[in-house]
TrEMBL record:
Residues 7-51 form the Helix-turn-helix domain. This is Transposase. InterPro entries: HTH_17 (IPR041657), SinI_DNA-bd (IPR010093). GO terms for molecular function: DNA binding. Pfam families: HTH_17. The lineage of its organism: unclassified sequences, metagenomes, organismal metagenomes. NCBIfam families: excise (TIGR01764).
Amino acid sequence: MLENQEYFTFSQAAKLMGVSRQYIYKLVKEDKLRASRISSRMSFIRRADIEL
């Protein structure tokens, strides 16, 4: 299911990258990973931003 998605929640991105959700938050805070804010409580990460 995750293979066909273009946008991921922080939890989904963490699972794909093999890291913790907290580490995803840290990467976003340090501007090492870009997240798109949809609302004040919802942010998503694009597939292109997590693929190397």
